[in-house]
Automatic annotation (TrEMBL):
GO terms for cellular component: centrosome; chromosome, telomeric region; kinetochore; nuclear origin of replication recognition complex. One of its GO terms (biological process) is establishment of protein localization to chromatin. WD repeats lie at residues 411-445. Residues 215-231, 279-288 have a biased composition (Acidic residues). GO terms for molecular function: chromatin binding. Residues 7-200 form the Leucine-rich repeat and WD repeat-containing protein 1 LRR domain. It comes from Cardinalis cardinalis. Belongs to the LRWD1 family. Residues 288-676 form the Leucine-rich repeat and WD repeat-containing protein 1 WD domain. It is found in: Chromosome, Centromere, Kinetochore; Chromosome, Telomere; Cytoplasm, Cytoskeleton, Microtubule organizing center, Centrosome; Nucleus. This is Leucine-rich repeat and WD repeat-containing protein 1. Keywords: Centromere, Chromatin regulator, Chromosome, Cytoplasm, Cytoskeleton, DNA replication, Kinetochore, Leucine-rich repeat, Nucleus, Repeat, Telomere, WD repeat.
Length: 677
């Protein structure tokens, strides 16, 4: 990679020059330059530079102090730019191009139009008229809305005499509230609107009220825009970036009227030894959690009145730089993908910000799953990217390159709805789809090229006796065995691809206590592995969550298919006595926790770390009594528009691998995020 030196700058000047201060046109394209190569000390000597070509490089941002006071024309095409706000340091800029920077969106176009008052051409298009609208009309209307919001909700909170702490509190509340509630223009410009609202609000506080702002204000929150505004775009293909899935923003953030530390609710059960009791008390204290956010971001048609959309699935995004360490705690982020209704959302659990929203008007999404693909980008370079698969009622899998805000393809996997999907942990392109057509299919989704061309192929079809609801790959042999919880029991298949049979019946069905035959099997609507061997499953039998051993239950040496095997039960977990189905469970293997929601909005949490060692020993015995929950998180008192939401079912609850956040999906279109204290 070429490094920038004085000699290089003189050589690449057009025409060649003998003095840096004499250079007016400079071509630094196709040099594999990264942001760190742009040395501000060297560039500060280019006092008369007017035209700069940085196209076809690897820049992800601009340094804030390049000091090019006379720069008029800038070409940044074919880079990796993620932000444009640093361009404000070039106030005389008249022409700017940054096409083929996949991370830049329409919102960035509007930002540069506001920041660069002399800009005439953006990506080859005259934006004079639109830029004037952005700088004047848009700013005037947003300023009016920000001022009105202060007068209506906050002006009476500021007393004549106030402490610094009170001022700080009011500032934080106002900035958070104004970004959530001041809406203007189409949803495609929501990021730009929030950016301007925050800027205007800060100026308002500093200038009108004399409240100097600190840098510790809370991160902005996203809202949905319903009012119309001119959306003329300098990017001609802006509406064609994602022709199938469109990006919207969240609708409303619901806050609890009370926030109380949730304490454990102990259920009547067996007497415990003093040692065991102390251990559980310590665990209980350790998992004290408080609610952070309550989000209504999957509304049908973006309706604020939608409390009927069911939320079904969520999964945390893997961290790209975790490498080959395979440490589940290291390889987790605080970003979670959720799905329900016609949309898929990406949420920052810490801030409650809905980062992105993908919408398909005719779909109802039931399941999402992440994988990380090493994709070839321009110049044959390879880079890891997270890909999100989403599927539901239409039987179609959407493949989304999240960083690029782009749904690059779809797989018509089944003719009936897809209940759940999951990726192989060892083969990043292998995706399992379980459908209401009573089949589980294994797909190779391929790796898209730099133009997002890809080829998907079906590798295997597993025949089920009933609808598969949950699937799980066996951790010790994820390329050989798959478990599925179905409408009439729990089944296992051999999925090894070196076998010639492409369509396969199940190899085993597991029998649980109280089940004498297939005719008495119960629906298994919850299924997950707690560790390499312990399976956690929930059936339609009221109040019953079983923990059982895979290795002790499955006879790998047996021959033939469709064999019945008795599940070797290790323990039962005490849970709600409801007969409500499809309230699924999840596990946090790194912390040895099981989570399951109930029909009252509560989350039952089980810390099983004191039991797993005993279960793993050769002489491990079944726990004679049901294990009570370590803690039950009760649904806090919420009021939405002055009213309490209707009956709340917890359809799913998932913790990140480090058990920092707990995401709760409900039947009333509310996503609750709890944080471990």
């Amino acid at each position: 990679m070429s490094k920038i030196t004085t000699e290089l700058l003189l050589e690449r000047a057009v025409p060649r020059s003998t003095r840096l201060r004499k250079i007016e046109t400079l071509n630094l394209s196709k040099l594999q330059l990264k942001t760190g190569d742009l040395d501000p000390r060297l560039f500060s000597r280019l006092r008369h530079l007017q035209k700069l070509d940085l196209s076809d490089n690897l820049l992800d941002k601009f340094p804030n102090s390049l000091t090019l006071p006379d720069l008029r024309v800038l070409n940044c095409n074919n880079n990796k730019l993620e932000d444009v706000t640093a361009l404000k340091q070039f106030p005389l800029l008249e022409e700017l191009t940054y096409e083929n920077n996949v991370y830049l969106t329409l919102n960035d176009d509007y930002k540069v139009m506001f920041l660069l008052q002399n800009l005439r051409l953006l990506n080859g298009k005259d934006i004079t008229k639109l830029a004037n609208h952005v700088r004047r009309v848009n700013s005037r209307k947003l300023t009016s809305k920000v001022t009105a919001h202060w007068k209506k909700f906050f002006s009476d909170q500021l007393l004549e005499k106030y402490t610094a702490e009170q001022v700080k509190s009011i500032k934080k509340k106002f900035l958070k509230s104004v970004q959530t509630n001041v809406v203007y223009g189409p949803s495609s410009l929501s990021e730009f609107t929030r950016w301007r609202v925050k800027m205007i609000a800060e100026e308002f506080l500093a200038n009108s009220l004399g409240l100097e702002l600190n840098s510790d204000t809370e991160p902005e929150e996203k809202t949905d825009e319903n009012e119309e505004e001119s959306t003329e775009s300098p990017r001609e293909a802006a509406e064609d970036v994602a022709p199938v899935v469109h990006i919207y923003d969240p609708l409303v953030t619901v806050t609890p009227s009370k926030r109380k530390r949730s304490h454990s609710k102990s259920s009547p059960g067996n007497k415990r030894s003093k040692t065991q009791a102390n251990t559980e008390e310590e665990a209980e204290e350790d998992v004290s959690a408080e609610p952070l956010h309550f989000l209504q971001c999957h509304s049908k048609g973006n309706s604020r009145e939608d409390f009927k959309t069911q939320l079904w699935s969520c999964v945390f995004e893997p961290v790209l730089d975790s490498g080959a360490r395979k440490d589940p705690i290291v390889s987790s982020s605080r970003t979670v993908a959720t799905c329900g209704g016609e949309s898929v959302c990406l949420i920052d659990c810490e801030t409650g910000t809905v980062l992105k929203k993908y919408k398909v008007a005719t779909e109802e999404f039931f399941s999402v799953a992440w994988t990380t693909l090493t994709m070839v980008i321009s110049d044959s370079r390879k880079k890891a990217h997270n890909i999100l698969a989403a599927a539901g009622r239409r039987g179609i899998v959407k493949l989304i390159h999240v960083a690029a805000d782009f749904c690059y393809g779809e797989i018509k996997a089944h003719k009936k709805p897809i209940a759940t999907v999951c990726f192989s942990p060892t083969q990043e392109t292998h995706l399992f789809t379980a459908s209401y057509d009573k089949r589980i299919a294994l797909w190779d989704i391929g790796i898209p090229d730099c133009d997002y061309n890809f080829k998907a192929s079906q590798l295997l079809v597993l025949e089920t006796a009933s609808i598969p609801l949950r699937i799980a790959l066996v951790p010790t042999c994820p390329e050989q065995y798959l478990l599925a919880g179905c409408e009439d029991g729990c089944f296992a298949w051999n999925i090894k691809l070196d076998k010639g049979q492409k369509s396969r019946p199940f190899e085993a069905i597991f029998q649980f206590p109280g089940e004498e035959s297939l005719t008495t099997s119960h629906r298994v609507d919850g299924l997950a592995f707690l560790n390499d061997d312990v399976v956690v499953s929930k059936s339609s039998k009221p109040g019953c969550i079983y923990l059982w051993s895979w290795s002790k239950s499955f006879d790998a040496k047996g021959k033939g298919c469709q064999r019945t095997m008795s599940a070797v039960i290790l323990a039962e977990l005490e849970w709600s006595t409801t007969d409500m189905s499809y309230l699924t469970l999840s596990t946090c293997p790194a912390k040895e926790y099981v989570f399951c929601g109930d029909e009252k909005g509560s989350v039952w949490m089980y810390n099983l770390s004191t039991y797993t060692t005993g279960w793993g020993s050769p002489k491990g015995k079944r726990s004679e009594r049901r294990i009570s929950p370590t803690q039950i998180l009760t649904w806090p008192e919420l009021r939405v528009n002055g009213e309490q939401p209707p009956e709340i079912l917890v359809n799913n609850v998932v913790a990140d691998p480090a058990f920092t956040y707990l995401v709760v999906l409900t039947s009333v279109n509310i996503t609750a995020i709890w944080k471990k204290s």
